[in-house]
Design a protein that fits this description.
Layout (H helix, E strand, L loop, with lengths): L4 H10 L1 E4 L1 H6 L7 E8 L7 E9 L7 E10 L7 E8 L2 H4 L17 E17 L2 E7 L6 E5 L2 E6 L2 E3 L3 E4 L2 E3 L6 E4 L5 E7 L1
Antiparallel strand pairs: 1-2, 1-14, 2-3, 3-4, 4-5, 5-6, 6-7, 7-10, 8-9, 9-12, 10-11, 11-14, 12-13
């Protein structure tokens, strides 16, 4: 299936190695210095481009966490032409380090993933110049992203904005009882710069 230039651009913008050092230097109280890796994986190729993501604190790059899968596909909706569906690896530890060592994730198959039904984003597109875009991804109003991890029910709020060189992530953990953010982008987005494609 041929993909639109917008979907291909989104995948290109999201893929790579990202760092938020500049943000942590400006506001070290609220932002931890992170490295984020996002690498393509060869699953759902018939209708999607799929990306593996994980991150690590800069002082412990050998201990990446938050392994997740993002499936990007076209919706046919002109307002939000792309959707991002999240999946969780059944064994995140098996894939740990796959962002910086892509050979660890190339044999990943869809049967080793758990679909996270409420963890979906609608992506809108703004064309900045010919073939140059800004993408904004937000959850649908009715979506509630919850899943079980290590026996606990976890709720998160997801979102991002991305251009060719910058990525802002709005992911945060939510207390299911109070609805308040408990970790992540509490004071605003994490602002990453792409350091390697």
């Amino acid at each position: 299936m041929p993909f639109s230039s917008q979907l291909l651009a989104l995948a290109e913008y999201l893929t790579g190695e990202f760092d938020n050092q500049e943000q942590t230097l400006q506001d070290p109280v609220w932002y931890v210095h992170l490295r984020l890796w996002q690498a393509p994986v060869p699953i759902f190729k018939e209708d999607s481009i799929t990306i593996f993501a994980e991150q690590a604190n800069i002082i412990s790059l050998d201990k990446p966490y938050r392994q997740r899968i993002m499936r990007l596909r076209e919706t046919g909706n002109s307002d939000t032409p792309i959707s991002v569906q999240y999946y969780m690896p059944q064994d995140p530890g098996e894939l740990a380090g796959g962002g910086s060592n892509p050979s660890k994730i190339q044999s990943l198959t869809s049967d080793k993933l758990e679909l996270l039904p409420g963890c979906v984003l609608n992506v809108s597109v703004k064309e900045l110049a010919p073939n140059c875009y800004e993408f904004s991804a937000v959850p649908p109003k009715e979506a509630k992203c919850t899943f079980t991890y290590l026996g606990n029910t976890v709720q998160v709020s997801l979102g991002f904005e991305v251009t060719q060189t910058e990525l802002k992530t709005y992911d945060k953990g939510i207390d299911g009882e109070t609805g308040k953010a408990t970790w992540g982008a509490i004071m605003g987005p994490f602002c990453y710069t792409k350091v390697r494609s």
